[in-house]
Amino acid sequence: MTDIIFSSWQGNIIDNRGKAKEAFAPLTVKLPAEFEKGSPVKAFIGWDGIILCNEDVDVVDMSLKYVEAVQKESCGRCLPCRIGSKVIWSILKNIAGGSGKAGDLEKISETALTIRDGSKCQIGQTGFIPLLHAFEHFRPQFERAITEQKKARQGEYRVSVTAPCMSVCPTQLDIPRYVEDIGEGRFSDSLATIRENTCLAGTLGRVCVRPCESNCRRANIDEAISIKYLKRFAADYEIEKNITPPADNKITSDKKVAVIGAGPAGLSCAYYLVQMGYKVTVFEKLGEPGGMAAVGIPDYRLPRTILGGEGAFVEALGAEIRYNVTLGKDITIAQLQKEYNAIFVGVGAHGSSPMGVDGEDKGYNGFIAGVKYLLDINLGKDPYPEGKKVVVVGGGNVAMDCVRSSFRIGKPDVHLVYRRTKTEMPADPVEIREAEEEGVNFHYLCNPKRIIEKNGKVTGVECIRMELGEPDQSGRRRPVPVPDSEFIIDTDILIPAIGQVVDFSCLEKKEDFSLTKWNTFQVNQETFETSIKGIFSAGDCETGPDVLVRACGNGKRAAWKIDEYLKGEEPKPRMSEKFVRFFGDVKVYDKKENLGIVGGTHRHHLKTMEPEIRKWVFDEVEDGYRTNEAIEEASRCLRCYRIGMIAVG
Amino acid sequence: MIRLTIDGKEIQAEEGRTILEAARENGISIPTLCHHKNLLPIGSCRLCIVEIAGYEKPMASCTTNVVEGISVTTQSEKLFKMRQEYLKFLLIHHPLDCPICDAGGECKLQDLTFEHKVEKVDLTAERETKTAKPYATALIRYSEDRCVLCLRCVHACREISGRTVLALEGSGIEAHMAPVNVNDCISCGECLNVCPVGALTEQSSPLKSRKWQTERKTTTCPHCGFGCSLVLDVFEDRFITKILSDADNLPNKGSLCVMGRFGYDFANHDARVKTPAIRDNGTMRTCELTEAVETTAAALTRMTKEGKRSGFIVSPRATNEEITMVLQIARCFPMSVIGTTGQYHTGKILNSFRQMGIPYSYEYDNLSTCDLVVVAGADLLANNHLLANKVREAVKLNGAKVAVIDPSPTALTEIADVWLKTTPGTDTFLFNNIAKQLIAGKKYDTDAETITGFADFTAGLEKYGKQEALQQCGIDEKSLDRFTALFSKADTVAVIFGSGITAHDESMAALLNLCLLRGLQKKGLIMPTSLQSNAVGALSILTNPTSPRDIVENAGIGGLLIYEDDPFHYLNGVFTEEAMKKKSFVTVCDALPTYAFDYANITIPTGTFAEKEGTFVAEDGFVRKVERARGNASMGFEFLKMLLNKLCGGLYHSEQEALAGLYKKEVLSEDGSGKGRLFPRTEEIRFLISPAADAKPARPFTLVMRNIFLNHHLSDKVVYSKTGFLNNPAIAGNKLFISPEDATALTIAEGDTVTLESDFGTAQERASIKKGLKQGVVEYRMSKNRQNILKLAGGCEKHIPVTVKKG
Fold this sequence. Notes:
The complex is a heterodimer.
Chain A: E1 6-7, E2 14-15, E3 34-36, E4 39-40, E5 43-46, E6 49-52, H1 59-73, H2 79-96, H3 104-118, H4 122-126, H5 129-137, H6 139-147, E7 157-162, H7 164-167, H8 175-183, H9 187-195, H10 201-207, H11 211-214, H12 227-240, E8 256-260, H13 264-275, E9 279-283, H14 292-295, H15 304-316, E10 320-322, H16 333-339, E11 342-345, E12 351-352, H17 370-378, E13 389-393, H18 397-408, E14 413-417, H19 429-438, E15 441-443, E16 446-454, E17 457-471, E18 477-481, E19 487-490, E20 493-496, E21 500-501, E22 535-537, H20 540-543, H21 548-566, H22 575-586, H23 611-614, H24 627-635, E23 642-647
Parallel strand pairs in A: 8-9, 8-11, 9-10, 11-22, 13-14, 13-20, 14-15
Antiparallel strand pairs in A: 1-2, 1-6, 3-4, 5-6, 5-23, 7-23, 12-21, 16-17, 17-18, 17-19
Helix pairs in contact in A: 1-2, 2-3, 3-5, 8-9, 8-12, 8-24, 9-12, 10-12, 12-24, 13-21, 17-18, 18-19
Chain B: E1 2-6, E2 9-13, H1 19-25, E3 49-52, E4 59-60, E5 71-73, H2 77-93, H3 108-115, E6 140-142, H4 152-159, E7 166-169, E8 176-179, H5 190-194, E9 200-202, E10 214-220, E11 229-235, E12 239-244, H6 258-262, E13 277-280, E14 283-286, H7 289-305, E15 309-314, H8 320-331, E16 337-339, H9 346-356, E17 372-376, H10 385-398, E18 401-405, E19 418-420, H11 427-440, H12 454-461, H13 466-473, H14 477-489, E20 493-497, H15 499-502, H16 505-517, E21 525-528, H17 535-541, H18 548-552, E22 557-563, H19 573-581, E23 585-590, E24 602-605, E25 614-617, E26 623-626, H20 635-648, H21 655-664, E27 668-670, E28 676-678, E29 701-706, E30 735-738, H22 740-745, E31 753-757, E32 762-769, E33 777-781, H23 787-790, E34 799-806
């Protein structure tokens, strides 16, 4: 972090100009010292004000360049921003060029306010805020430029556009744009926009944990917009209207890349590599694409036809996917190293974490790890037909999938055991609600202690009551056992679903790779390269069990690095990646911001099947948006694009 | 209802309404430039900003919904200044060429500038100089320098017409509207219609006029059966300078198609028949109307004396009043035969509706309440374009699903949730199988069981198995299943059907049975299209007319009176010519010379829609008014009046009397709102036992004839509409289409000559390859010089079995 000489960020004025360093006011905003190696952050100018770290920045020049960026980004969809920003630029250019006139500053201020108060989106609404701040706090510089007809000193800047929703998307979807595409009825354009940043629109549109929606400014006035379901709408539209996606084989290079695993990370990596022209072969253990998304997420949440279509789309672009090929059995890393110029490992985390209770390693009939249970069901099997009563342990989405799938394979009596309360449950609240509606018996504040068996078959589980103590590192209150509170739940099937681990049995020699203390692949965080040259990794096998969208984003970024590697370049972060990090520090969304506009609209909810009907079938629970609903929902978007500019020289 | 206050006035508005809508509903005006009733809010001009008490920032009233309890201010000093500033922004670049701008006097920017007292603009914002650029269609001029980038045109192109021709390109000050996908343009002129300034102006009229120089008359479009309302701009009571349309004009709400908007110039054409003429020794000479009347009357009377019959052919584009007159004249001769081309499509429909007791009339706007719209055998592009717009509106406003049944890509296949490419003439297998499936799955309206004929109908379905349907129709199982699922699940279904269905009696019967089974006559819509502006009127007045072919080719008919029709337009010219030559007299009444004129002994000028006074009955079963926009009378009606007077002492003396006669005879009735409509019939509803399907044709291909009933005034012998229809190859011009698969199999390349052979003749045409066309189908799009392709026709078939050979 760096010293701040002046800041008007979010209206909190820090003014250390002319002060001794010791007398500097406490920081209310954080700014990294360097934007990139050797480029110190001298100033930052953006939607919420100006932050100055180095006094030799010419504020007049910086303001002009910022207005220039606003004018360039102005989309043309509303006239105040489109024309007004150019009007301001024209005057400001004169001032910075040494030919300003008296009255110019007043004229600019007046125009800036008209644009701020009337523009359609945040480009115009925030684009002139820092300029107004500059006029207020750096007025002498501007006045001097006019009276002395002094030319401004040209600086060097880096500019980027962001939005609160975009800034937290691990795969950097251009959310305002694809939402706007839908709002304007350009549904195929919307999907094309989404596909610039992921090949898994239909999947993410159903199962993404949607950090974007928690960062939606609309929530400050009423409810966050339904970004996820709009994505699903765009993806489904193509399927429903039987549109063939534009997909030409893009292979131009003779360099070959092997991608191990057709899960979200592997598919994403392959998707970008083929678009960059590489020959890509994906090796997949299962008979279909999707990895954990295919076998870990039941059809009623994510029909496998969706994943199948998305895999086919990547194939249509030129990737070859070889199904039913297992690493460690049919192929080895060593073989691939000989045949391919680079390897991407995205094998996921398909192993099950142990619960640490007596008997779990004994192989009792009826004791089935959550991931295995779901895999069997997804392959069309009942994992343990004689079992009728089911107890699932855990509070995440996998646990929810296990309980809800149990009904769907005909198990009528389903229980869930979780050591904390509903409030702390990490599963998606929609999942929890739907599981409740379907009749799952929830046992909160208890934890399994011992498996009870008879003749090698599970007959029950001994649990102990818990209570919540002090918060732990995750911020959730730590569950503590209540002494002597043991009790028994009878059951035929016991399913631990408390977490997944990477299954390294696919590697001949696991020791060849450096691993992290969480038993995942150790990679260079800038390049995704493992400890072995030319072998890259991302997804759950690198991060440990994580959300799908992160695997998508990292798979994409790994593809960029593989590209650089194959070109013989030094892998380095892209400008966009640097800005992601930078905006992560600055924070694009302010939950407390008072928008000053009226809300009062509600998000559209999806129509869901009745619990009593849906719980016995694998049909998708939710119907997607109708066209009109999608348009209305998209129209709620406030289009919070913001421009950030860093002075680096 | 939401309660709120606007400018101190307490009002109520429906939830979901915008502040702008609520204000306008309550007579409070807010300035706008980009807002348009028919479009989703655009929000580009920002002139409709309002202040809301308790909230710091002004908000655009067009995109902000009403909220309980808010207090809105629409006029304040701050808002006025902001609006003024925005107008100044626009005026930096907008040229002050109002004196030569077509929009002068009716330009929104002009009005707003005036209202906001913008006197001078002292701002600069450099941008590239705009120069004249070609537009997507030659019918419209794009003066880019005048564009205010309100984006109405871009939205209208997409939302109303379902096209992607226009887009916003570039960014910042260089952002501009551009025709980016010119090949997709169908010249409908929706963009022109919504342009608030003079950026898009009509380029087709050779004579321009200003608002204050013209008289405006609202009337009904003469082309297809939809019955669009339009406004004629008439200069000095003689020249139509343009067609306007207003969003308030129902049922089309200001939308029109290329023919309606630009295809009016035939009325101005120099070739208009001006005086009656009579054949003397082989050549035509002009004569007085009385001489034409006397001669025609004498000829008709002579026929009866000679024991021959007279034939009357009346156009389904003539007004009800004219048709009534022709019928009265025909009735003076008991042996006479009367017919109309409307018989080929609408006649069959009205017959089936009568037999099945289905009431005929529907409201287009009810489409917006439907969940599923089925469009069967109707391409809705050249004909009934507006119906396609209404379907798109149902998708936009209600999220309706769309199912298309057609062997060829149509206006709606791109947005169809399912498209069943059935082989022409096999639809009966499809509809009956779906009916069978609905019954098996108990997914029909149980009231249908009480409808007469239910048992026989269901028994008859037995033989229509799914496999047979798939095989006969040539469709895949997945699509059929999807259709069946959508059709059985939807709450409210609309079925639109066209000539692809009526071409085969059994297909129409099967479809109508399916509609009854699903209860669409009670909840839902059964919407037959009609191809001509007054086909429904004609067929209601002339119950059970004869087909024109049977009149022309009947040797027992010695003489003809043809009213605004041209048999050569749609019948095989070889047979027609032979038959016409044998008639001892032919009187042809028309506004412009036709092929039939060559065989006429007497020709009479008639009026176009611009000179007529009268009514049409549109396909929805409601009466439309045709209002005289210029001149004093239509000579066509005068002729009929005098002839009738001569023959039997004049029943009707004016159009009004003729119309009154239709009400009296219970052809038409008035509904509660004073709107005229078809007289409601109350026959018992019954299922129709489907006739057996036609035998499978012996020839490998089916030729589908498109646009056969296009208004012959637009293009037939001569192209009378210079600009209207033929400039755009995407929609017009004679063309034979073949599927890529068949083209490959027959080694036919684009533009190759192919020979078509039918049971009636052979014809050579150049082939064009059309993606999406069903294999085994060739399609012919007709405009002028249609006699070549009509050599293949026997009567007036929609589907002709043919053999196709290269070369």
